[in-house]
Design goal:
single chain, about 170 residues, mainly alpha, 5 helices, about 70% helix, elongated
Length: about 170
């Protein structure tokens, strides 16, 4: 009779279990290739030509359009009203960065900015406040947690710039 009984360690047991599962899955793939089942779609099945747009992709496009419009207004205000050049430049750079993060490369058509410095500043700040509210609403309605964090971060960055620049 043996003096010492050999026990299977927990690590060895887990490793053998994972190895067996991997071997089983690999065997199934190998069996499919041997049998010639290369077409994963059964005959007569309908395949979609394009994936359906999900709620988050539509939301991203809407927010990117709003960001591009606000960026165009900030740039136009900065170039048209000389005393607001610093504010307009900083905000348009921020919006360009945010639009780029969302995959938006084209800019919106620049609006015509007229009036005094005070009128232009009020219009710019109203636009920025509306965009910030839109970003907060988008963060609340995003289905993806990561996207919600991106929108919330953009809203916070915008609030910070507004506080510093005005």
């Amino acid at each position: 009779m043996p003096d010492r009984v050999s026990h299977l360690s927990r690590r060895a047991f887990v490793a053998l279990g994972l190895g067996g599962a991997a071997l089983t899955l690999t065997g199934c793939d190998a069996l499919d290739s041997v049998l010639g089942d290369d077409d994963p779609v059964p005959p007569g099945a309908v395949t979609a030509t394009a994936p359906a747009a999900d709620a988050d992709s539509t939301l991203v496009e809407e927010v990117a359009t709003a960001i591009a419009a606000a960026g165009a207004l900030a740039a136009a205000t900065g170039t048209t009203i000389a005393p607001l050049a610093r504010i307009g430049t900083r905000l348009s750079r921020l919006h360009a960065s945010h639009a780029s993060e969302l995959g938006r490369t084209e800019a919106a058509a620049p609006p015509v900015v007229t009036g005094s410095r005070d009128v232009a500043l009020r219009a710019l700040l109203a636009s920025e406040a509306a965009l910030q509210e839109r970003l907060v609403a988008a963060a609340r309605s995003a289905e993806s947690g990561a996207l919600a964090q991106v929108f919330a971060s953009m809203a916070a960055a915008l609030a910070q710039q507004k506080a510093v620049l005005t």
